[in-house]
Amino acid sequence: MLDLQEVSIGPMPASSPWIRPVRMTFLQNGREKVWDLMRSHDSVSMVIFNTTRKKLVFVRQFRPASYVSCLPEIPKVDVEKYPATLGLTLELCAGIIDKDKPIVEIAKDELREECGYEAPASAFTKLQTYRYIACLATRQTLFYVEVTDDMHVHPGGGDETEGELIEVVEMSVPEVKTYISSEEIHSPPCFLYGVTWFLANKIDRYC
Known about the structure:
The chain is of the alpha+beta class. The chain contains five helices and nine strands. Strands 1, 2, 3, 4, 5, 6, 7, 8 and 9 form a nine-stranded mixed sheet that branches. The radius of gyration is 19 Å and the shape is globular.
């Protein structure tokens, strides 16, 4: 995961299968405005709690966007000066909605592929669907699912055919509380929301 070499930054091709930059022009209150944004796949994410060991289950991976946010605007990157660790993030298990199937089934697939747990659709509770704003036009649906050690029947770690490199991370509730209290958190907002929801609504499960 941390073997990063030959990094360069360039323009995005229009043929990207993941995001599509567009420019929106409009009149608002009689004033012409312009906004650049990106269309992207909607996605699912999930708060996972292992009831056998009373631990939350997350994933850690290298995120190019997180890495680039730490770089100056240069075309060629010195990986000795800017190591891959700058791009590591701790996240909820998640995946894009790119298949014609119920989103709970997509959540099931991601749970198995990324974390190795096989859980029935009935184990998933849909919490909310929310939108990302500013420059990204997409929605994410958040689920809660409880698993046990007996459900861990796959290796996890992501889909090798897609080049995913994912580390499964288990944290106790005290460890999670310490992490989200840090001055700088290497996690997206949906991670903080999911963890905060769990701490507020599932205290009976971890105390």
